[in-house]
Write a structure and sequence with these properties.
It is built from 16 helices and 19 strands. By secondary structure, it is an alpha/beta fold. It folds into 3 domains: about 140 residues, OB fold (Dihydrolipoamide Acetyltransferase, E2P), CATH 2.40.50.140; about 270 residues, inorganic pyrophosphatase (n-terminal core); about 100 residues, Diaminopimelate Epimerase, Chain A, domain 1 (Roll).
Length: about 550
């Protein structure tokens, strides 16, 4: 069964995700889809259970780390948390602080300033924690490449437990314990956890150790799952295995029993519909990230850990205003970046005008537009160039950074993102190496401009029963993509332009009708005029607005006949 060879309105080619699938009715479509994805009706995939999470003690160094934290709790030792300023880092810091506070432990935290300090644990914060009387430190979403800080901690008799997920170098730092699924000798949860996820498994292990000693805390760790879910989605982790379970139950928390801070954030973002992965990505995560981008991540961390509703409302409002400012700053920087690049194939640049908090976003926009990794930098107060890297499917930013390591210091990253500081006088050589490493990875990268199609459906298959079954794949996201369908040769009978750039179409094959909806019709507007015949690519969903079993087809792209 062949797919159309011509490019779509967005310039994409079509390819089969699995075996070719064609269905004229919902039952055949569903059964064929299950077969192609290696599932059955009763598969545990469709009923994620917390009891199916992997044993945290399977993570390398977990025995040592959990016992040390349990000792600190029982002995009344002060504990310091070293966080990071993005959504993953501040959520992870928040859950560690809240959970450990519940045990009666004295807990302090520090989050670096993006522009002044950058990613990672500095030597000075370690010394400050020691001078404050702490003997134990926990990192979250950082630390794997912080060799100086770990060495300083060791020399000072300060037990520093690193919990992180960023790609390690060939050598590991001298931490008391290093919890990182990306370690060559680990691979826990298929190396898929974000930093907050690692921190959550650490808490699970600590609670188990304390329970075995007869001191299990009354605090229910399930209260933290709303923040674990937000961090996992914000860090664009694959929603499979342990992540699927954590996000599935975290979404239930967000919709039914969100924490005080999350409830305030949901309110200020004016989210009226059910919270989903998409909601997190578009409404919640950007506001959390805004604090660390333009001001300081501490404001977001305090929002995510507070139990005071008035404080939560105030902090959420501040983050909302900061996010509005972030949008303006990002748009201007992106415009300037495009002018600077011109026709250059190497997407590596920096400018003294750019704010530290938006260079990663600009890099992401460049990578999406041009289909290859981008490195965008700003200039620190000391005159150093610090870059943020973003990629696209088929490339691995962490490995790319390792390939450029001779020109970098203080760097770190994972598959989709990373960053570091360019060594003095090394910018031109960094650009040369960056271009070469990108070219090397590109030889093995998949075609970016493609749509993976699950099957070809006729309009007779588009039934609410199929839409209900497809919803069982939620939470949908990276690693667990939405089911994508092609429907051939539909006549556009009517077009209505709605608010916010939304377009609603009436489509027919001559016998059946379906409502099509387009969110953001840029690049497709001329191809969706009444009277035209098109083949549409997208997802089948229930139409919650109309109700009564109505369905709609969310059009992602199309091919003109």
């Amino acid at each position: 069964m062949s797919l159309p060879e011509q490019r779509s309105a967005k310039g994409c080619r079509l390819s089969w995700r699995h075996e070719p699938l064609h269905a004229d009715d919902p039952v055949t479509a569903w059964q064929s889809l299950l077969h192609n994805r290696g599932l059955n009706e009763s598969d545990p995939f469709f009923s994620p259970r917390l009891s199916d999470l992997p044993d945290p003690f399977l993570m390398t160094d977990m025995d040592k780390a959990a016992s040390r934290v349990a000792d600190a709790v029982e002995n009344g030792e002060a504990i310091h948390i070293f966080g990071d300023f993005d959504a993953d880092g501040v959520n992870g810091t928040a859950i560690l602080v809240e959970a450990l506070h519940s045990t009666g432990a004295e807990v302090t935290f520090s989050i670096p300033h993006r522009a002044d300090e950058g990613h990672g644990i500095g030597v000075e914060p370690v010394r400050a924690a020691v001078e404050a009387g702490c003997k134990l430190g926990l990192s979250v979403d950082t630390g794997t490449t912080c060799f100086d800080a770990c060495s300083a901690a060791h020399e000072l008799g300060f037990d520093l437990i690193v919990s992180d997920h960023h790609l390690p170098e060939s050598e590991l730092p001298a931490a008391f314990a290093l919890l990182n699924p990306a370690r060559a000798d680990c691979g826990f949860a298929d190396r898929q956890l974000c930093g907050t996820g690692v921190a959550f498994f650490l808490l699970m292990a600590v609670w188990k150790v304390l329970g075995d000693r007869g001191n299990r805390p009354a605090f229910d760790l399930r209260q933290l799952l709303d923040r674990v879910a937000v961090a996992t989605v914000a860090d664009v982790m694959d929603l499979v295995g342990a992540n699927r379970i954590l996000v599935y139950h975290g979404l239930q928390r967000l919709n039914n029993e969100p924490s005080v801070g999350m409830r305030a954030l949901i309110a200020v973002a004016k989210v009226k519909k059910e919270i989903s992965v998409e909601t997190i990505g578009f409404y919640l995560a950007p506001r959390i990230n805004a604090a660390g981008r333009l001001q300081h991540g501490e404001a977001a961390m305090r929002l995510l850990s507070t139990r005071d509703e008035d404080e939560a409302a105030r902090l959420a409002s501040e983050l909302d205003e900061t996010n509005k400012q972030r949008r303006l700053v990002e748009a201007e920087a992106f415009k300037q970046a495009e002018l600077i690049l011109g026709d250059s194939r190497t997407l590596a640049l920096y400018d003294q005008r750019w704010h530290a908090g938006v260079v990663g976003l600009v890099a992401g926009r460049l990578a999406r537009k041009h289909g290859r990794p981008a490195a965008v930098g700003f200039v620190t107060p000391e005159g150093a160039v610090r870059v943020s890297l973003r990629g696209r499917p088929g490339f691995h930013i962490g490995e790319l950074l390792n390939g450029c390591s001779e020109h970098l210091e203080g760097f770190g990253g994972h598959a989709g993102a990373g960053g570091g500081t360019i060594k003095a006088g090394q910018w031109d050589r960094f650009c040369e190496t960056f271009a070469q490493v990108v070219a090397d990875q590109a030889e093995h990268a998949s075609d970016f401009l493609s749509h993976n199609i699950d099957g070809v459906l006729s309009l007779g298959a588009l039934h609410s029963a199929l839409a209900d079954r497809l919803a069982r794949f939620e939470p949908i996201g990276k690693g667990n993509p939405a089911c994508s369908w092609l429907i051939r040769d539909l006549h556009i009978a009517d077009r209505r332009n709605l608010k916010g750039g939304v377009v609603r179409l009436k489509l027919t094959d001559g016998s059946h009708w379906i409502d099509g909806i387009v969110f953001g019709a840029n690049g497709m507007s001329d191809a969706i005029e009444p009277g035209l015949t098109v083949s549409v690519i997208g997802q089948l969903q229930k139409d919650e607005w109309r109700g009564n079993g109505a369905v709609q087809f969310v059009i992602e792209d199309l091919i003109t006949s």
